[in-house]
């Protein structure tokens, strides 16, 4: 993955009267990334997408697309974007070819490059055989493909997709997910969803949003290994409890009896190696060292539920 930053959002905030829909949100998208924006319904995902694409002005904050300010020069910034909103902006009375030609013209595709752009977008989105058909006569899955095709027809470096599989059947969902993953070979993608398997199947990094704030931002490689939770350690000759609590990365220690202890690690820490080293040096007779790891689902539920609890309080 390239380190070139294609989108940078700084302190994005959107208020509707007293309601804060997005609260001081920072977001960075690098070349070659597929970023999943994950959150429960009403978390602020669609509002964030609309601000990133210039369809909604932020109350405060800035968005830069390839170092171009979306506020100061919106036309230049938007040339680098393709966008599929939650409701595909298709015209049912047009054929697929007519609609995509119209979209290409809106995006400024030169006439001499129009046929090649049309053929390329249809090929990438699996629409080659339906160019003559009316959009309104296509299935929901194919209409979504048409929506994605209009987003990539001008070959922007960044493609933003808001809930692209809503309302599709399982087969259509699988096809659209494969299409998005294939798009990631040539485009950087932001995918908004509230569906965990969708993010896990497609994205390389996940950002969880709850009540308009970022509460988690990690690569899927890190997330798949699981975040370290409680650690259980078994010792035949255990030291004083304070000796375990003094080990770097250990937050709290609880005795379970018979030489077993439950340890809570500091946030972001994994003290298992330090525990094993200390047990060897102290001749504590280590016979068990295991950790519970949190899956993405558990992380999502924990962070979003915690946020809802705080809001209620």
UniProtKB/TrEMBL annotation:
Keyword annotations of the record: ATP-binding, Nucleotide-binding, Transport
| One Pfam family, short name | ABC_tran
Any one GO MF term held by the record is: ATP binding
Asked whether the keyword Translocase is assigned, the reply is no
Give yes or no: UniProt keyword RNA-binding.
no
Q: Where is the ABC transporter domain?
A: 7-236
Q: Sorted alphabetically, which CDD domains does this protein's record hold?
A: ABC_DR_subfamily_A
Q: Which domain of life, per UniProt? A: Bacteria
List the SMART domains hit by this protein, alphabetically. Answer: AAA
- What InterPro entries has UniProt attached to this entry? AAA+_ATPase, ABC_transporter-like_ATP-bd, P-loop_NTPase
- Family assignment from sequence similarity: Belongs to the ABC transporter superfamily.
Identification of the protein by name = ABC-2 type transport system ATP-binding protein
Q: Which organism is it from?
A: Fontimonas thermophila
């Amino acid at each position: 993955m390239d380190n070139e930053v294609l989108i940078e959002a700084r302190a994005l905030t959107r208020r509707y009267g007293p309601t804060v829909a997005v609260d001081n949100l920072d977001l960075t998208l690098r070349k070659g990334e597929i970023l999943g924006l994950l959150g429960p319904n009403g978390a602020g995902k669609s509002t964030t997408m609309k601000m990133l694409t210039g369809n909604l002005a932020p109350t405060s904050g800035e968005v830069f697309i390839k170092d171009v300010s979306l506020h100061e020069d919106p036309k230049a910034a938007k040339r680098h974007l393709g966008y599929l909103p939650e409701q595909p902006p298709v015209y049912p009375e047009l054929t697929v070819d007519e609609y995509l030609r119209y979209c290409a013209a809106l995006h400024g595709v030169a006439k001499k490059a129009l046929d090649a752009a049309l053929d390329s977008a249809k090929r990438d989105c699996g629409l080659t055989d339906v160019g003559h058909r009316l959009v309104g006569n296509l299935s929901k899955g194919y209409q979504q493909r048409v929506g994605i095709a209009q987003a990539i027809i001008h070959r922007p470096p960044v493609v933003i997709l808001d809930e692209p599989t809503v309302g599709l059947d399982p087969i259509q969902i699988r096809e659209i997910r494969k299409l998005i993953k294939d798009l990631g070979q040539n485009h950087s993608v932001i995918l908004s969803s509230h569906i965990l398997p969708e993010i896990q199947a497609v994205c390389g990094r996940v950002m969880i949003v709850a009540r308009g704030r970022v509460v988690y931002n990690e690569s899927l490689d890190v997330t798949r290994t699981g975040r370290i939770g409680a650690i259980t350690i078994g010792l035949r000759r255990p030291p004083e409890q304070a000796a375990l609590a003094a080990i770097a990365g250990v937050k709290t220690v609880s005795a379970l009896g018979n030489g077993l202890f439950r340890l809570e690690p500091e946030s972001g820490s994994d003290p298992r190696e330090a525990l094993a080293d200390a047990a060897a040096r102290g001749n504590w007779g280590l016979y068990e060292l295991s950790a519970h790891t949190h899956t993405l689902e558990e992380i999502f539920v924990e962070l979003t539920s915690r946020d809802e609890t705080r809001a209620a309080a």
